[in-house]
Amino acid sequence: MIVLGLTGSIGMGKSTVGAMFAEEGVPLFDADAVVHRLQGPEGALVAEVEAHFPGTTGSGGVNRTALAEAVLGEPAQLRRLEALVHPAVAQEKEAFLAAHAEAPLVVLDIPLLFEKGGWRSVDKIVVVSAPAEIQRVRVLARPGMTEERLDAILALQTPDAEKRARADFVIETGGSFDETRTQVRAIIACLTRPSVG
């Protein structure tokens, strides 16, 4: 099995690319989706989040906007949240890898792959990237997003140029969906092609 780490800064199209890998039949571990489930109405982390960050949960589970306000720009609070979330996500990831042990290729879509050391546990890295101006337009179109919030998020992320330099593959998402899908298929072919000799 080849474990392919998928990463990219906010607004670069990482979720779209992850979905394309899944559509091509590659098992996908989506860490964000796992966190959403763990913090959802029946989520295993809701009570712990409320205990550490009072007022950030309700009948729908964790209120992500309220939680973001509680931790963004507060390094100590962010570390407290990560200490809750990361072990739970790691446990889910190990279960995913065990369930797909026979697959020739799996994709781990993990935010902050470089920033939090996740790159050490993958075989190859693909970085999703787009021009900075496209990135800003995409992110600022999101509900509740402001220039200040975007800048705070970007400050926590490894710069795009550095991610690209450390990647085994770069997928450019500034063009059409078909152009992006062609790049995804080329990477799958490269990594699953039988070796000669």
UniProtKB/TrEMBL annotation:
Transmembrane segments: none annotated. One of its GO terms (biological process) is coenzyme A biosynthetic process. Pathway: Cofactor biosynthesis; coenzyme A biosynthesis; CoA from (R)-pantothenate: step 5/5. The keyword Coiled coil does not apply. PANTHER family: BIFUNCTIONAL COENZYME A SYNTHASE-RELATED, DEPHOSPHO-COA KINASE-RELATED. The lineage of its organism: Bacteria, Pseudomonadati, Pseudomonadota, Alphaproteobacteria, Sphingomonadales. SUPFAM superfamilies: P-loop containing nucleoside triphosphate hydrolases. The gene is coaE. Its EC number is 2.7.1.24. InterPro entries: Depp_CoAkinase, P-loop_NTPase. Its main location: cytoplasm. It comes from the Bacteria. This is Dephospho-CoA kinase.
